[in-house]
């Protein structure tokens, strides 16, 4: 369509020139211009038209050259931009004219140039953020070579890097804030005044005083740890002062009301409380010096109570007897008693689990002996209402618990003795020796009772077969009644008062005969024979109370 229009326009141009020449010829004819003059005039017209067309051709040729030069320039610029911006080379469409190629290249260069500027502007802003974050966190900035054009991938990675650093900053700021708050609270609780520059900065209100570095976090954590250790030390000191003061209150028979009033008056920081309790302790210590005799007597009573709690025999108490019997009341004597009391208290704390286990064993041991006593009572089968069934269940549990407790004691005590390098003694005996002595004593008592019963039966048979013998009055209770020889000897409880024990101040202790170790398992077969009746067999599978 365009070619037809240009052809028509060219034809019209030729036609116009021809018409113009025709009119000129007509004018010349009317004027009477001769042929030579006409030729001259036509030559002038021709030159004028050719000159105009040549000028136009020159200008269009120059335009064509400029367009070609622009194409070359734009191609170079485009190649450079694509390379700088890490983009694929620009591909030109086929079949385009020179003018279209120049236009497309020019527009593409303008787009990429604008994008380049935007990238550089964004890069500058992102690098500024990255730099600030890296300074605060003391980390390495994201690397983009100076003067280079960042690719879209690099810009995205830089954005993600900044996002990661921002989150890390928030996290570290939270940690810093928490550490500083904890340190501030600890110092306030203890009444500790900041001394070092780190302590002063950690409790200050300037949030930007610390760079959020790992090193500073470690420094604050170390400071917090030091404050916690100091608080624990102060707390222990305070507890020790309280304990010592309360001990002196007890020794000096202080009024409970006065003690309560003082305790309610104590307030403030840990340091303040320590100062107040230290003052009270000093006052009580001075008061104690004026009442040494009464105080030492009370310490001795407490010492005896702990000896009894620990089941210490005369051999273990004997080394302190000299001080115990010393009537020369002095502060040095009180100090010796306090040291001995502290030692036995520490020992009690160590062996308390074994003492409690031994108490449980003694409880079941007493039940075991009671069941054995009831087993010899012929009237037990006349009991109704389920009591016999309950008794059988309880007996099964006792039979299971005794060996279990003995084994637990044996293992626990052996481990403790190996660790401490000393023996755990019960009334001067090793614990398993003590338990074995109970079994041995029980075994001997059973043998003695059996012999007494056999002798009694023989005596009764002799009385029945002797002729003309005047009947004698039987002892109260008949054949089945108890006799003095049949009263069983029971184990002495370990928690008895000091008046029931071996005298505390014996200077010479007797040698104990060490029995052969016997445990519950040695009596298992004998016990099973005693519990072979049908009622017991029916309950043997239920060991509960």
From TrEMBL:
It comes from the Eukaryota. Pfam families: MAP65_ASE1 (PF03999). GO terms for molecular function: microtubule binding. One of its GO terms (cellular component) is cytoplasm. Residues 443-516 are annotated as: Disordered. GO terms for biological process: mitotic spindle midzone assembly. Coiled coil: none annotated. Residues 443-453 have a biased composition (Basic and acidic residues). PANTHER family: PROTEIN REGULATOR OF CYTOKINESIS 1 (PTHR19321:SF6), PROTEIN REGULATOR OF CYTOKINESIS 1 PRC1-RELATED (PTHR19321). This is Protein regulator of cytokinesis 1 isoform X4.
């Amino acid at each position: 369509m365009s070619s037809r229009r240009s052809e028509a326009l060219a034809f019209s141009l030729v036609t116009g020139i021809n018409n113009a020449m025709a009119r000129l010829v007509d004018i010349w004819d009317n004027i009477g211009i001769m042929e030579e003059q006409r030729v001259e005039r036509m030559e002038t017209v021709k030159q004028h038209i050719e000159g105009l067309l040549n000028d136009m051709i020159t200008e269009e040729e120059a335009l064509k050259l400029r367009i070609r030069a622009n194409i070359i320039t734009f191609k170079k610029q485009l190649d450079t931009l694509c390379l700088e911006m890490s983009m694929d080379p620009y591909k030109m469409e086929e079949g385009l004219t020179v003018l279209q190629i120049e236009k497309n290249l020019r527009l593409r260069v303008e787009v990429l140039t604008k994008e380049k500027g935007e990238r550089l502007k964004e890069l500058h802003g992102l690098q500024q953020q990255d730099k600030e974050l890296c300074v605060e966190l003391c980390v390495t900035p994201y690397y983009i070579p100076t003067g280079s054009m960042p690719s879209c991938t690099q810009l995205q990675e830089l954005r993600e890097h900044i996002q990661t650093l921002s989150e890390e900053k928030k996290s570290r700021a939270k940690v810093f804030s928490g550490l500083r708050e904890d340190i501030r609270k600890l110092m306030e609780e203890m009444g500790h005044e900041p001394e070092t520059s780190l302590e002063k900065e950690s409790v200050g209100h300037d949030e930007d005083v610390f760079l959020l570095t790992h090193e500073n976090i470690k420094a604050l954590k170390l400071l917090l740890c030091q404050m916690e250790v100091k608080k624990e030390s102060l707390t222990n000191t305070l507890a020790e002062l309280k304990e010592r003061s309360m001990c002196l209150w007890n020794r000096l028979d202080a009024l409970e009301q006065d003690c309560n009033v003082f305790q309610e008056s104590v307030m403030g920081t840990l340091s303040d409380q320590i100062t107040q309790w230290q003052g009270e302790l000093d006052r009580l210590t001075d008061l104690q010096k004026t009442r040494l005799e009464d105080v030492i007597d009370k310490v001795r009573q407490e010492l005896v109570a702990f000896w009894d709690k620990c089941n210490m025999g005369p051999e273990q108490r004997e080394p302190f007897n000299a001080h115990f019997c010393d009537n020369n009341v002095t502060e040095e004597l009180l100090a010796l008693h306090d040291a001995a009391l502290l030692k036995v208290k520490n020992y009690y704390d160590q062996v308390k689990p074994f003492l409690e286990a031994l108490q449980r064993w003694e409880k079941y041991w007493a039940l075991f002996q009671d069941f054995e006593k009831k087993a010899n009572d012929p009237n037990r089968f006349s009991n109704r209402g389920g009591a016999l069934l309950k008794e059988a269940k309880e007996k099964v549990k006792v039979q299971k618990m005794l060996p279990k407790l003995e084994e637990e004691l044996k293992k626990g005590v052996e481990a403790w003795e190996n660790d401490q390098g000393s023996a755990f003694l019960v009334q001067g005996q090793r614990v398993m020796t003590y338990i074995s002595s109970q079994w041995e004593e029980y075994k001997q008592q059973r043998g003695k009772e059996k012999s007494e019963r056999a002798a009694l039966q023989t005596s009764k048979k002799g009385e029945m077969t002797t002729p003309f013998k005047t009947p004698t009055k039987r002892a109260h209770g008949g054949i089945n009644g108890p006799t003095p020889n049949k009263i069983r000897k029971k184990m002495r409880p370990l928690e008895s008062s000091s008046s029931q024990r071996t005298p505390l101040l014996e200077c010479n202790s007797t040698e104990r005969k060490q029995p052969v170790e016997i445990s519950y398992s040695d009596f298992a077969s004998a016990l099973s024979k005693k519990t072979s009746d049908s009622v017991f067999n029916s309950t043997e599978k239920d060991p509960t109370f």
